[in-house]
Design a protein that fits this description.
The structure holds 2 protein chains of 2 kinds.
Chain A (H helix, E strand, L loop, with lengths): L1 E3 L3 E6 L3 H12 L4 E4 L7 H4 L8 H6 L12 E4 L7 E2 L33 H9 L17 H15 L7 E2 L2 E2 L23 H12 L5 E2 L9 E2 L5 E2 L21 H4 L1 H4 L5 E4 L3 E7 L6 E7 L5 E11 L2 H12 L22 E8 L15 E4 L9 H4 L5 E6 L19 H11 L3 E8 L8 E9 L5 E6 L4 H20 L4 E5 L42 E3 L14 H19 L8
Parallel strand pairs in A: 1-14, 2-3, 2-14, 3-11, 4-20, 14-22
Antiparallel strand pairs in A: 4-5, 6-7, 8-16, 9-10, 12-13, 13-14, 15-18, 15-21, 16-17, 17-18, 19-20
Helix pairs in contact in A: 1-13, 5-13
Chain B lengths: L1 H11 L6 H14 L1 H4 L13 E4 L2 E4 L16 H10 L1 E2 L3 E2 L6 H4 L4 H12 L22 H9 L13 H11 L5 H4 L17 E3 L2 E3 L15 H10 L1 E2 L2 E2 L3 H8 L6 H13 L15 H15 L25 H9 L1 E2 L11 E2 L8 H12 L11 H7 L5
Helix pairs in contact in B: 2-6, 4-6, 8-12, 10-12, 13-15, 15-16
The chains are: A alpha/beta, B mainly alpha.
The structure holds flavin-adenine dinucleotide (FAD).
Flavin-adenine dinucleotide binds next to helix 1, strand 12, helix 9 and helix 13 of chain A.
Chain lengths: 586, 394
């Protein structure tokens, strides 16, 4: 039996990055807000204090911070004609659960898209012609421009205290920054991290080849920082336990270290943890959300009525909850109709490993975003015509960690076990560097999300099914940028080098990135998008869908800078316009 | 007509009290932090029942809402004044000094009356509290008559014409309603202030409240007026963060006071004579102390004990760290602690407890290091002291 609770002004589904950003904005605007989070409360001192946070077995191997697959998972297949199987252990991406969401165990890379990324389709056609876009590719323009989002990118970076070096200040190119980035109104709130030997060597080699290296912008802070809410973040200790871990030193920007202390002081916010939203409820017209139904940790079902519903459940559950709630037309891949689940996209990552005999590195010095980057093979920085593909990548040497279990580089040909392996792993532990190319992912007809016809979760609801493989365009792109990456690697003078190109079929087991996007794209037209430019559902105007689900395709950059900016942009439209005159904003 | 309405309104307000008197009373009750002791965990504000541990047993605070049966609804202004300034409640019942009447006696009559007006404006809450819960013989309140004769010096604060207005206001607040010495002054065997050592630091409920005189190692010598004001207003200032019982004082009391009053308190405290410190030379510390510090503490508190403003307290130059008695320090290492969170400084960072991670020898070693590094100097704690604090901090 579902019991009805007293109505509230707004209900937020999921209390990670976007959920907390919305909670802050809406309570500041005077709304009573109920936030519902399926996972547990997480707090720095109690959940991941410095004494227990750096536990590689618990967090990196066993995934203590992750959504337990016994509670919810997805099914997966590469192609439409295959039978999808459930993911029983997360691999390729690692969705979180609990207060802070994936924002607790993220790495911290905080990027903006480039101005040209927002007009991918029209700019490609203008520069290379309509036929340059493969017919099955469904890339489309964003319904917002870089210039419109710039103040909100700025807002997210100043919320986080992002460490970095500006490359373009109001049109003036800055030495040491990314010369290809869009103009920014002001510099980063904190200077870049101090680079150790590996990234320095990479940057020297790249500069020697005429490229433009710069420090990766990141939420592992180079110095203490007080954000506009008065919350203080600490200084990174370069311990190397960022990605997959909570930061015990308050030094990684996360929902906990930037917003939670403010939100716990807002009496208008009520947070329910251990409560999973089952569906969004709509009225008989289907055009208006009346609230949500959730189940608490004792298995009791509750209906929380609300005037406004904010879907902030990470892109996977955003799409799944839309499908389970019957909001928006589900995507039909064969006919190419419908929108919910359409344009799922990933990223195309490849790597080069270098082995040196004459150089010693110190892998103990690490941080999630401690790296130097080359962005010369991305966006409009090079001619895609002769290269024959759309998209690009940023290239990096990242000194992210030297953790004892997984950071075990050995040259190709080394036995996988035994005395020879031991000798090699001991010898190369501090004589090896990894280079990475983080490449874009174009949306296409064969990549989508829908409800699985067979597998169900613990509540008996269908699991979401993912159908994905790399598009040949993206593999061509990856091949091209990996060759450039290897070029820089060679110039660094290693004694041996191993190149790991990305091949089809996509393998969902090894970790690549958690930059899964799309499925509830934002767009200018309801026929090709789920939400409008303010992330407002086309079908249900008192429902907003926040997060990476809004991306129409994926750029090469980590998405959270853009996800945060879009949340602030949507929040400003809601508090500035929607609340005064509820109804469609576009 | 308008006059009549105004008169009626006045009559409606807490038995004729003027609205501005209620507002003033509310502010003064905040200075006195009445709400802290007179509210049980999870209970209605001012309805009493909070257990207060004393060396003589555990007391329960009284209900001070205007409920006639269980609160102070039946009290006259004069009775309220007598309770707060003379320590004698209606019926000749002597108060225990857990209610800091030896400080409140210095408050002016009109301020006490304003507090009463404010309390009378609250909604009455029926909550009978058994306030006489001390074990024999301390349950005999008449014993307090002798205590009062020996230790209680009634009398209102007198301004010193040689000092400026800020100093006098500060003194009035610190020595009176603010009752800083209730924690920060050492107590004798009878639980009374050792007045010759006023504000030089005291041990209460297993916490060492550091000295508030401008002494170099164990007091406020390194502090500026601005630093102290920031500390009292936000919980964070002078490189330190309020935690433990002081976090509660900041959250409930000082963060709500006016800047002028906070400044006055800082002026007064920094102008008082410094405690004479016995010269202490840094004690030699075991090598393990530094190793443990670098491994467990340095990531937050810094390699040179410098801390991070607003997040992690500085250990270098800290009066808590160099306290003559290391209880607070041992306790924080064992149990952890959380900094005050206020609107101005909401972070409220916390330190985890190390009780299960470090043994007594290790804690003694790392504390010896912290107490004797970067210019700090104080006696190294003994492992036995750590053992005593385990499980029984009080
Ligand atoms: C290992 C890792 C590394 C990453 N590194 C980076 C990086 O360096 N840079 C970058 O830009 N991005 C990075 N990311 C991605 C980043 O974490 C996400 O983009 C970001 O957290 C998305 O914010 P969100 O609010 O959409 O989702 P989240 O922050 O994940 O919050 C969603 C919340 O919703 C809750 N929820 C879901 N479904 C329900 C339901 N039905 N009912 C109730 N609650 C629900 C979840 O439990 C979760 O707490 C990384 C992610 C991972 C996992």
């Amino acid at each position: 039996m579902t019991r009805r609770l007293a109505p509230t002004d707004a209900v937020i589904i999921g209390f990670g990055w976007t959920g907390m950003i919305m909670a802050e904005a809406l309570t500041a605007a005077g709304l009573r807000v109920v936030a519902i989070e399926r996972g547990p409360m997480r707090d720095t001192a109690q959940s991941f204090p410095p004494a227990t946070a750096p536990d590689e077995l618990r967090y990196a191997i066993r995934g203590d911070m992750l959504l337990p697959t016994a509670e919810e998972t997805i099914t997966f297949r590469n192609h439409l004609d295959q039978h999808a199987l459930p993911v029983r252990k997360w691999g390729s991406f690692l969705p979180g659960s609990g207060v802070g969401g994936s924002g607790v165990h993220w790495n911290g890379h905080t990027w903006r898209l480039r101005p040209e990324d927002f007009a991918l389709r029209s700019a490609t056609i203008a520069r290379y012609g309509r036929h340059f876009i493969p017919p099955d590719m469904t890339i489309q323009d964003w319904p917002v421009s870089y210039a419109e989002l710039e103040p909100f990118y700025d807002g997210f970076e100043y919320l986080c205290g992002t460490s970095g070096q500006a490359g373009n200040l109001r049109g003036a190119i800055q030495p040491g920054g990314n010369p290809f980035e869009g103009p920014r109104a002001r510099g980063y709130p904190t200077p870049p991290l101090t680079m150790p030997y590996g990234p320095t060597l990479f940057a020297e080699a790249a500069a020697g080849m005429g490229y433009h290296p710069f420090p990766l912008p990141t939420g592992n802070l180079s110095q203490p920082y007080t954000n506009p809410h008065g919350v203080v973040l600490g200084q990174c200790s370069y311990c190397g336990f960022c990605e997959r871990f909570g930061c015990g030193n308050y030094a990684k920007a996360s929902p906990q270290t930037t917003l939670l202390p403010v939100l716990t002081r807002r009496p208008a916010l009520s947070l329910r943890t251990g409560c999973e939203v089952l569906r969004i409820v709509t009225d008989s017209t289907g055009k208006r959300a009346t609230g949500v139904v959730y189940v608490d940790d004792k298995g009791e079902e509750w209906e929380q009525p609300a005037e406004l519903v904010l879907l902030c459940a990470f892109m996977l559950d955003n799409v799944r909850l839309l499908l389970l709630s019957g909001i928006g037309a589900p995507y039909e891949p064969r006919a190419g109709t419908g929108v919910v689940g359409r344009n799922y996209a990933y990223q195309t990552v490849s790597a080069v490993q270098l082995f040196f005999e004459d150089k010693i590195f110190n892998p103990f010095i690490g941080a999630g975003g401690l790296g130097m980057v080359v962005d010369d093979f991305n966006g409009d920085s090079f001619d895609h015509g002769p290269a024959g593909f759309i998209g690009g990548a940023w290239l990096t040497q990242l000194a992210s960690n030297g953790r004892p279990i997984l950071a075990r580089p050995t040259p190709p040909g080394t036995p996988r076990w035994g005395a020879a392996w031991k000798a090699a792993t001991a010898h190369y532990y501090n004589r090896s560097l990894g280079l990475v190319a983080s490449g874009s992912s174009s949306s296409h007809r064969g990549a989508f999300l829908d409800l699985d016809p067979g597998y169900t979760d613990r509540h008996g609801r269908p699991l979401m099914r993912m159908t994905f493989d790399f598009h040949p365009n993206d593999l061509r792109m990856s091949e091209y940028v990996t060759d450039r990456l290897a070029g820089i690697g060679r110039a660094m003078g290693p004694s041996r080098m191993a190149v790991f190109k990305r091949h089809a079929p996509y393998d969902i087991r090894p970790y690549q990135t958690t930059h899964v996007v799309g499925g509830a794209a934002m767009g200018a037209h309801p026929e090709t998008s789920v939400v409008n430019r303010y992330l407002q559902s086309w079908d249900v105007s008192n429902l907003f869908v926040l997060g990476g689900s809004a991306f129409p395709q994926n750029s090469s950059y980590n998405p959270t800078g853009t996800i945060g900016a879009l949340a602030l942009w949507a929040a400003s439209a809601i508090t500035g316009h929607y609340l005064r005159a509820p109804g469609p904003l576009a | 007509m308008r006059g009549i309405v105004a008169l009626l309104l006045l009559a409606l307000l807490g038995g004729g009290a003027r609205a501005d008197e209620v507002t003033r009373g509310r502010y003064l009750a905040t200075v006195g932090d009445c709400i802290a002791c007179h509210t049980a965990p999870g209970g209605a504000p001012f309805a009493g029942g909070r257990p207060i541990a004393t060396p003589f047993g555990t007391l329960r605070s009284a209900n001070i809402t205007p409920d006639r049966a269980s609160g102070i609804g039946g009290w006259s202004d004069a009775a309220f004044d007598r309770a707060l300034r003379a320590g004698i409640a209606p019926g000749g019942k002597y108060l225990y000094p857990a209610c800091p009447f030896p400080y409140f006696t210095r408050a002016r009559g009109e301020d006490i009356a304003a507090i009463h007006a404010y309390l009378r404006s609250l909604a009455p809450v029926g909550n009978p509290v058994q306030t006489d819960a001390l074990p024999f013989p301390f349950d005999i309140r008449a014993l307090m008559r002798g205590w009062d004769a020996a230790f209680f010096r009634p009398g209102v604060w007198h301004d010193d014409p040689a000092q400026d207005a800020a100093w006098n206001r500060g003194g009035y607040l610190v020595e009176g309603l603010g009752h800083c010495g209730a924690c920060h002054t050492a107590k004798n065997a009878f639980g009374a202030d050792e007045t010759r050592r006023a504000l030089q630091g005291g041990l209460l409920q297993g916490w060492w409240a550091p000295g508030l005189t401008p002494a170099p190692r164990t007091g406020l010598a390194g502090w500026s007026i601005d630093g102290l004001v920031a500390y009292l207003r936000t919980g964070s200032g002078g490189g330190q963060l309020a935690s433990g019982p002081m976090a509660e004082v900041v959250e409930r009391s000082t963060s709500h006071l006016s800047d002028t009053d906070l400044r006055a308190m800082a002026v007064y405290l920094l102008a008082r004579p410094a405690r004479t410190e016995v010269a202490v030379r840094p004690a030699p510390t075991p090598l393990a102390g530094e190793a443990i510090y670098l491994d467990r503490c340095a990531a937050c508190h810094g390699r040179a004990g410098e801390g991070t403003a607003g997040l992690f307290p500085a250990l270098r130059g800290s009066a808590v760290v160099q306290a003559p008695r290391p209880q607070t320090l041992i306790r924080v290492v064992l149990e952890g602690g959380r900094a005050a969170a206020t609107d101005a400084a909401p972070t409220g960072a916390a330190m985890p407890g190390f009780a299960s991670l470090l043994d007594n020898d290790e804690i003694a070693a790392v504390l010896a290091y912290i107490r004797n590094s970067w210019g700090n100097a104080s006696a190294p704690p003994r492992p036995a002291q750590v053992e005593r604090m385990r499980g029984s901090p009080g």
